[in-house]
Design brief:
Blueprint lengths: L1 H16 L10 H8 L13 H12 L10 E6 L2 H7 L8 E8 L8 H17 L3 E5 L1 H6 L12 E10 L7 H4 L6 H4 L5
Antiparallel strand pairs: 1-2, 2-4, 3-4
Helix pairs in contact: 1-5, 3-5
């Protein structure tokens, strides 16, 4: 289930960014989706409280099944704590842990949490920040839920890293290439 959700989230990001550098559509939201990318080079310039607040508000507004809003967000600014989860963290970065409500069967609302994460990713990039989504480190972070102050009954699904980006690197030189639309889209006639 986790792998499928992480894959779905990854596919959504790929689909949203596969046309990076494409001609402007004239629509700010579409243009943002077509030019967003996940940088690897962050600066030490801190993300402001106002930026974090706006990103969280966008996550809260994400759609969810039956409008259950089954997520909780934990903001981590402590560098040592962040480095335990993501090795190449630099000062000034912020991690947002996206946790989903666990059911009695142990299932979590991974898809809904993915939608909230995508909203926050788009918000961060639209604010001129860099954002990267991590699935693997979330599993290890779950072992420290209490220390991370993740609410009881919630499981960390994904981690969103937000930071200021190195302006000398751009989407063309810093992002992974995308598959051509013809390779991943088919139309039933």
């Amino acid at each position: 289930m986790k792998t499928r959700t992480a894959l779905l989230l990854f596919v959504l990001i790929i689909a949203a960014t596969q046309f990076a550098g494409a001609q402007s559509s004239g629509n700010a939201v579409v243009d943002q989706l077509l030019t967003a990318w996940s940088p690897k080079n962050f600066t030490t310039e801190p993300v402001t409280d106002q930026q974090v607040d706006m990103i969280l508000k966008c996550g809260i507004k994400a759609p969810s099944g039956k409008n259950n809003q089954p997520w909780r967000f934990t903001v981590v600014r402590d560098e040592a704590t962040m480095k335990e989860m993501i090795g190449n963290i630099v000062p000034g970065n912020v991690l947002i842990l996206v946790s989903g409500l666990e059911s009695e069967t142990g299932k979590t609302p991974d898809f809904d949490c993915g939608l909230a994460t995508e909203n926050m990713f788009i918000a961060a990039t639209s604010l001129g920040l860099g954002a990267r989504i991590y699935g693997g480190p979330a599993g290890a972070a779950n072992e420290k839920r209490e220390a991370l102050q993740v609410p009881a009954g919630y499981k960390i699904i994904v981690i969103l890293r937000v930071g200021n980006i190195d302006k000398s690197v751009d989407a063309v030189s810093g992002a992974s290439s995308r598959k051509a639309q013809e390779e991943i889209v088919n139309y039933k006639k």
